Amino acid sequence: MNYKLIAIDMDGTLLNNEEKISKRNKEALHRAIEAGIHVVLSTGRLLRSALYYSKSIDLGNPVVACNGAVVSCGDEDKLLYEKTLRTESVEKLIQLAEENNIYYHFYDKNTFYSRKLDEKITKHHESYRDNLKKQQINLKLLEDPLKILREEKPKIYKFVFIEDDKNKLLHFREALKSIEGINISSSWHNNVEVMNKGVSKGEGLKQLCKKLSIDSSQVVAIGDNENDISMFQVAGLAVAMENGEDIVKEYSHVITDTNDQDGVAKAIEKYVLNL
Question: What pLDDT was estimated at residue 125?
Fold first, then answer.
């Protein structure tokens, strides 16, 4: 197959466990670009973070961010597609999280909004604030999230809820189903992510392929978690990471090595570059 686009998840996939992109992965990405293939980061991260990583390794390609809620041609102000959460949905999400004492934060294009930086977020990232600053991500700690929503009316693309108690998280995920007009997913064992209805990485990828006149059969998708399944259902070749969740592997065509063992590079070399 002559593939024309590679959509790659970031955390647990392209990034190793130190949140870095290995030399071999970088080299494979650039070899694909030299072969005329679009290399697209497809991530749950907010747009500014996705663009930061894309530019840091000179990809010069579009990015799919916030689980497909926003697609950019490579510039924060040049969007190919966006779909924000409705204000009514956002208010209900905040109220439900507060009632259940669940940590949450939410994103617009370039701002990370939270009541506080909970240890569930920072315990694995000692320099979390430094990372936000390095990526030029705005941080807003809110005393009254509903007030910000009503007064500033930011465009909210995605919510993230984090809870280490699995039963509590499952109960909360079930409770979320009472809110109309949302899509529920997950990118890690201890989180639930919410976007507007119809939003997914797969839908973002469809919108991008339409703009680029690329058939879905010519797409390779590489990922490791539940929020990547929609990409796998769109792509001609779905590649799961060895370190990925079992459910993701069930939707894949092939399985590559782990994110710490250059799994992305090995997949591109074998299935795209035919090395």
Answer: 44
Could you give the C-alpha distances from 16 to 7, 129, 165, 214, 227, in angstroms and in order?
17, 20, 26, 29, 18
Query: According to the model, what pLDDT value does residue 117 have?
Result: 67
Alpha-carbon span 198 to 182, nearest angstrom = 8
Q: pLDDT below 70 — which residues of the chain? A: 117-129
Residues 11 and 82: their CA atoms lie apart, in Å, by 22
Please give the pLDDT value at position 241: 98
What is the pLDDT at residue 238?
98
CA distance 199 to 184: 9
Beta strands 5-8 and 219-223, pairing class: parallel
Which residue segments constitute the domains of the chain, with CATH numbers given?
5-82+200-272 (3.40.50.1000), 87-196 (3.30.1240.10)
Cβ 240 vs Cβ 224: under 8 Å: yes
Catalytic annotation, residues? 9
